[in-house]
Amino acid sequence: MELVARKADLVRELQFFQQIVERKNTIPILANVLLEATGNEVMLLATDLEVALRSRCEAAVGKPGSVTLPAKKFYEVVRSLPDGDVNIETEKGGTTVKVSGGQFSSKMPTLPREDFPSLPEAGGGAKATIKGKSLKQMVALTQFAITGEDTRYYLNGAQFVLRADSMTFVATDGHRLALVNVNHEGAKGDDIKAILPRKTLAELGRLLADSDVDVKYERGENHLFFEIGPRLLISRMIDGQFPAYEKVIPKGNDKHVEFERDRLTQAVKRVAILSNERSRAVKMVLDKGKVEVTSSSPEFGEAREPIAIEYSGPQLTICFNAQYVLDFLAVVESEVVALELKDEVSQAVMKPVGADGYDYTYVIMPMRV
């Protein structure tokens, strides 16, 4: 194989593969990215057997062929080169590849193309076209609520539901739940449901970070396919039944207070500094005209900060994990957020006020301290 590609083009594509490839794995070929050069382009492919990414890059191909290279070191080498062309050429024997640019030259080991796993192909499943902006928004509003440790494997992802007129993402770790619904037109037939792994959502977020292109979505028998411009993300689905989350959303929260988002964010951050490092507990004491945010711990002391609000109900004290509150405040974009309560022990609901284009509900369980 022999090809020449622009450094900027290669770096742009290779950066998307860095989180796909696992640093530690028991199968050496999974640390490599596959390059297949034909015509006037080179295709790049990497997988961890759960999530895979395929991309393309323009190239002047002298000799068609394929090769696998260590994904992270190859990216670091290409990124370090001076601007201009990158030359990639298989050495005689096929066990090393020469990567050069400017005055720099290197030789990198390769593993056999035959060892690279074959990937599922799309075809025959339910299809839809999704607005990239909406998908990016939904990922950002839910992915932080996915558990990373739960033995209930179906909670290690977010449920995606595509209906004829709407899309829903919902994620929960058992202590909080993030639910977002966006209007959508174009899906046909029955509802499409799938549980997307945490890593898939993270990759979708990266691929859509600088682009609002429409996403072509297809559900296969065991895999999901997301075509985003020249890139195709393939993800294994989590096999399981997502919890009946509708039952968790409280209906009778009759106490409603509103905050300036930035004001509440800064108060919780400051007060949480002196909270118990394990529980991260902060209390909110609602009283007429104010909420007092407080924390205390035997090791560090105590802190409090009042926030003026419009509230005339009875005094109520409720305790939350500070990080759970801050996670919500970090992803919503509205200037004002609402907190809806019933009592000290029931689920509370946080929502953005005046959010444009989506309906977002964040359910958070209070702590008992």
Task: Sum this structure up briefly.
This protein is of the alpha+beta class and 369 residues long.
Notable traits:
single chain, 369 residues, alpha+beta, DNA Polymerase III, Chain A, domain 2, 3 domains, eight-stranded antiparallel β-sheet, 6 helices
Describe the model:
The chain has 369 residues and is α+β, with helices and mostly antiparallel strands. The protein has three domains: 2-115, DNA Polymerase III, subunit A, domain 2 (DNA Polymerase III, Chain A, domain 2, Roll); 126-246, DNA Polymerase III, subunit A, domain 2 (DNA Polymerase III, Chain A, domain 2, Roll); 249-364, DNA Polymerase III, subunit A, domain 2 (DNA Polymerase III, Chain A, domain 2, Roll), CATH 3.10.150. The chain contains six helices and 25 strands. It has helices spanning 7-14, 71-80, 132-142, 198-207, 261-272, 322-331, and strands spanning 2-6, 32-38, 41-47, 51-58, 60-63, 65-70, 85-90, 96-101, 104-109, 126-130, 157-162, 166-172, 176-183, 192-197, 215-219, 223-228, 231-236, 255-260, 281-287, 290-297, 301-308, 316-321, 336-341, 348-353, 359-364. Strands 6-2-3-4-17-16-15-10 form an eight-stranded antiparallel sheet. α1 (7-14) packs antiparallel against α2, α3 (132-142) packs across α4 and α5 (261-272) runs antiparallel to α6 (322-331). The protein is elongated, with a radius of gyration of 25 Å. It starts with a strand and ends in a 5-residue tail after the last strand. The mean pLDDT is 93.
